[in-house]
Automatic annotation (TrEMBL):
The name this protein goes by in its record: Uncharacterized protein
Superkingdom of origin organism: Eukaryota
Disordered: annotated span: 205-226
Amino acid sequence: MRLLGGTRFTEDIDVLIKPGKVEEMKHIRQKLIEVDPRFANTRVLKLYCQIPDPDVPAPQPEARAHVLIETLATGNLGLPTAPEPTLQFSTQDLPIELPVLHPSVLILTKLKRWTTIFASSRPKSRKKAASDLVDITFLVQWLIQEELCIDFDLYQLSEGKERSVLLDYVRMYWDHLLEGENAEQVTLLVSILRDDDRSEIEAAQLKHGNSAAHARLKASEPPPTD
């Protein structure tokens, strides 16, 4: 998120790997550990990187926070079957360009995870859900700023998966905002939905018995003529 302009401290980084590249990624992980002491593996084969801790006041350059780097195979766990489309980003500290999943699709991956954990009572899951909400809110603002919409068609689903799965991610988030009476965020979310997508989601809300959706539909009906 920070490459896109977000301010939330990076707690983890997800790296999408194309099919057939898993062994290659294992090799890259090992090479990173060998050439750069900031990288380390754990006994459960998770890769971590040490970066300056923003919560420790300067000057304390030795203070470090550990950021988990997870390597995820495309197509697994409901992720896109290809890590694309992407945007290229670089920073002053990182002169090389890094491909980042396009925000119009990235927001759906964030919503996907959030919908699976937001109702959890586990502290770790609740913490992840809270950070996902921060990212989702930021991505909504980013898309508005760039005058873009969520692009359901660019999300490459696994064979057998239907587009309605993606619409459900947005529906559940929309319902969550309605239950929290967060009208402002609902308005922002709706502004990054194409009309056809919005209509499908609202139809699904009615199907799932969302009372707020029923109220919207009732308000939009023309008054009786007799």
